[in-house]
Specification:
single chain, about 400 residues, alpha/beta, six-stranded mixed beta sheet, five-stranded mixed beta sheet, 17 strands, about 40% helix, about 25% strand, elongated, binds adenosine-5'-triphosphate, binds magnesium ion
Length: about 400
């Protein structure tokens, strides 16, 4: 099957936004079916350009994904252009109209007449109501080519690509499509070259699986793509080789994994953060239900805050400095005691660009975790040459990973 994308919108051609809708579809297509798009076009909000592009695609392709211009305002006229190209008129779709009315009512907003325009679709089009927005998606033929029309708002776009477009492309492709599976294994704290070395023995063993390495700092992911049974076998063997370095798979996140561990243990955590300034707390509280296991987080930025809120001794600060293993330990034990919870964790370091010592230059971070029955773990990292924001993120992830390993014990 020959598949194309057509993105509409002036913003895409004036450098305001990148066409991430088409790339989302392209990725999903490759992951799910191993198919690649043969041609991708971007056109401005001009009727004649959109109609030309629709006609040109209709003459070449079997299936085309069209993004954008289905909104309620006067600059949204993709449905009108589709009708023109197909030589049919626009008609009101009762289900779409009802969907728009119901959405507005639920939000307590008044429906204006331009909103009702979104219920107008080319005659004969198959309409798919959009759970993420008011404009529906629709499917229609122009000539012998199948067109999928999808709103431009990325959240709505993704939903309709998954629910409307991909299943129909699978049907359209018939026997020429071989379903593929994607497995993702996530690590942090190791570089991607190390990840590759770890799983290298499996590459010749699974010739039909593509091993991909993706960096999402401070995480590194292994992506396995191929026939479902091969991917599953490669996933199990990869996990065995990566071992404790893997924190999760698929949609799992590091904060989510730490939260799940604490929930399972029915234990709680308190934090003392210095150079991360609350980043660890922000990440952990992004997990729904975090109040079930996160008690508190203190941003103990100055020496006096470390003493008052985390019980750090003046002597330790004077002898070892605020960025030291001794102070990190005292911070973790201190917040644990102050919050009266099972776990305490801390981070202190030099995020730069100035500061640091000869022994502990900018980029040096000390972490500590304190737990039940005298449990204590510390770590020192030295991310020299990294800029401030990356050091802060790396430190936050390293602390969550130290927690994950501690909570396993
Ligand atoms: P709306 O109801 O918002 O008007 P629409 O279907 O008419 O939806 P557009 O007007 O084309 O869609 O785009 C709406 C917004 O979605 C744009 O302002 C832009 O932020 C985003 N968007 C549109 N097209 C793309 C794209 N190809 N890639 C990424 N984002 C996009
Ligand atoms: Mg619009």
């Amino acid at each position: 099957v020959r598949i194309e994308t057509l993105a509409t919108g002036d913003e895409l051609l004036t450098g305001l936004i990148a066409d991430t809708n088409s790339t989302y579809f392209q990725q999903r297509l490759l992951e799910r079916f191993g198919l690649t798009v043969r041609y991708g076009a971007v056109v401005p909000d001009l009727r004649e350009d959109i109609i030309d592009a629709l006609n040109a695609a209709a003459a070449r392709a079997d299936a085309v994904l069209v993004s954008g211009g289905l909104g309620p305002t006067a600059d949204d006229f993709t449905a009108e252009c589709a009708a023109k190209a197909a030589g049919v008129e626009l008609v009101e779709h009762a289900g779409a109209l009802e969907h728009i009315r119901a959405r507005f009512k639920k939000r307590g907003i008044e429906v204006t007449s331009n909103n009702l325009r979104q219920a107008q679709v080319p005659r004969g089009a198959e309409v798919v109501l959009n759970a993420e927005g008011s404009a529906p998606g629709f499917v229609m033929r122009i000539g012998r080519c199948t067109f999928f029309f999808v709103p431009g708002v990325p959240r709505e776009h993704r939903w309709l690509v998954d629910e409307m477009v991909l299943p129909r492309i699978e049907t359209l492709g018939g026997a020429s499509i071989t379903p593929r599976a994607l497995a993702v294994i996530k690590t942090t704290g190791i570089v991607e070259s190390k990840l590759e070395v770890l799983v290298a023995p499996l590459v010749p063993k699974f010739p039909r699986v593509t091993f991909g390495y993706r960096t999402h700092p401070p995480e590194n992911h292994l992506k396995l793509l191929g026939p479902p049974a091969d991917v599953e076998a490669a996933r199990v063997e990869s996990l065995a080789l990566i071992g404790e370095l893997a924190f999760g798979a698929g949609d799992e996140t590091l904060p989510g994994v730490v939260g799940a561990q604490l929930s399972r243990r029915q234990e709680r955590l308190a934090l003392a953060e210095s150079c991360t300034g609350g980043l660890v707390a922000a990440e952990l509280t992004s997990v729904p239900g975090a109040s079930g296991w996160l008690e508190s987080s203190a941003v103990t930025y100055t020496e006096s805050a470390k003493q008052r809120w985390a019980g750090v001794e003046a002597k330790a600060l004077a002898e070892h400095g605020a960025v030291s293993e001794v102070v990190a330990k005292q911070m973790a034990h201190g917040v644990r005691a102050a919050a009266k919870v099972e776990w305490g964790a801390s981070v202190t370091g030099y995020a730069g660009p100035t500061g640091g010592t000869e022994k502990d230059p900018v980029g040096t971070v000390y972490l500590a975790v304190a737990g039940p029955n005298g449990f204590e773990r510390t770590a020192r990292h030295s991310w020299t040459g990294m800029e401030r924001e990356r050091i802060r993120r790396a430190a936050a992830w390293a602390l969550m990973d130290l927690l994950r390993r501690s909570l396993k014990a």
